[in-house]
Amino acid sequence: MRIEGTTYEFTRASDLQRDGFSLECERVEDDGGRTLVLEAFWHDPTGRFSFSCSAKELPFALVQAFVQAAAGGCPPIRSREVGTKVILYVKLLNDGTDVWRPVAAEVVGNDLFRITGDHHEEEEWEFGSGAVVRCEERRFSDGVTGLVATSAD
Question: Is there a single domain that holds both residue 89 and residue 148?
Answer without folding.
Answer: yes
